[in-house]
Amino acid sequence: MKEFILALDVEERRIALKIAEELGDLVDRFKVNYPLILSSGIGIISELSEIKPVIADLKIADVPHISARIAEIAFRNDAKAVIAHGFAGSDSLKAVFNVAKRFGGELYVVTELSSPGGEEFMNKFSLEIVKKAKEIGCQGLIAPATRIERLKEIKEVAGEMKILCPGVGAQGGSLEALRFADGIIVGRSIYEAENPRKEAKKLREYVQAYSV
Ligand code: BMP
Predict the structure, then answer these.
(1) What does the pLDDT look like over 114-145, one tens digit per residue?
(2) How confident is the model at residue 193 (pLDDT cuts 50, 70, 90)?
(3) What is the pLDDT of residues 47-79, one digit of tens each?
(4) Rounded CA gap, 179 and 156, in Å?
(5) Are 114 and 167 in contact (CB under 8 A)?
(6) Is CATH 1.10.3080.10 what the domain over 3-211 is classified as, yes or no?
(7) What DSSP line would sit under 3-62, residue for residue?
(8) Is 186 in the pocket of ligand 1 (CB under 6 A)?
(9) Is residue 195 left, alpha or beta, with left meaning phi > 0 and alpha meaning psi from -120 to 50?
(10) Whose CA is nearest to atom 20 of ligand 1?
(11) Nearest residue (CA) to ligand 1, atom 1
């Protein structure tokens, strides 16, 4: 079954909770990032978790002991998964992976950003990042829906690792990503839509159709 994940990049706790209540039945998980966590506080993860599991997209990329502490705070506040940057290297990834393991959570590793800037530096190393993440035993990867050919290459190296793809919709990425990915992460196309529920329903049906 493919996953449909809502990126809740709004900046107000009240709005985030309202959207989550309205769309929670249509999505598999929520992903929260700095805009929401910094404006609402880390407690928003627990609040949203009452509705659906939360991925804390903190794009962790620090020296190992700090990376581990960041991940620990996210898991202590009920995150079920965290996202870390692969470019920080295997020591930092291992540190986060060990924390995730202790909490029974997951670690998703960013390969290369879905934005054009992801092609400047990150894509020179993204396949190496995939190999490293796989070697460590990380549960999944974040890979661009905006570059399908690259996504295909990432999938070939990733094998059975789970791949979640942001970039669908507002960034110009296509749902074709689901040919290689296990799930899509969508934000603005839903929460900025005139009728977010209608948009989310359409995507839900699409993801479901791809899952059979
Ligand atoms: P939107 O659908 O509004 O473009 O949002 C995409 C979400 O996915 C954002 O939260 C962003 O931080 C995240 N993301 C991304 O867009 N590209 C990546 O390569 C990695 C991400 O985590």
Answers:
(1) 999 999 999 999 999 999 999 999 999 999 99
(2) very high
(3) 999 999 999 999 999 999 999 999 999 999 999
(4) 12
(5) yes
(6) no
(7) EEEEE---S-HHHHHHHHHHHGGG-SEEEE-HHHHHHH-TTHHHHHHTTS-EEEEEEE-S
(8) yes
(9) beta
(10) 113
(11) 187
Q: Which two tokens mark 201?
A: 């329903």
* DSSP 3-state percent helix, strand, coil across the chain (nearest 5): 50, 20, 30
> Most distant CA pair in the chain: distance in Å?
44
The residue with tokens 């603005």 is 188
Our answer to whether residue 94 is catalytic in this structure is no
DSSP assignment letter at 187: -
Q: Is 188 close to ligand 1, i.e. is its CB under 6 Å away?
A: yes
Q: Which residue among the candidates 59, 132, 134, 201 is catalytic per the annotation?
A: 59
Q: Hey, what amino acid is at 35?
A: P
Q: Cα(20) to centroid of ligand 1, in Å? A: 18
Confidence band for 212, pLDDT divided at 50, 70 and 90: confident
pTM over 0.90: yes
pLDDT score at 211: 86
Tally: H helices and E strands in the chain: 9, 8
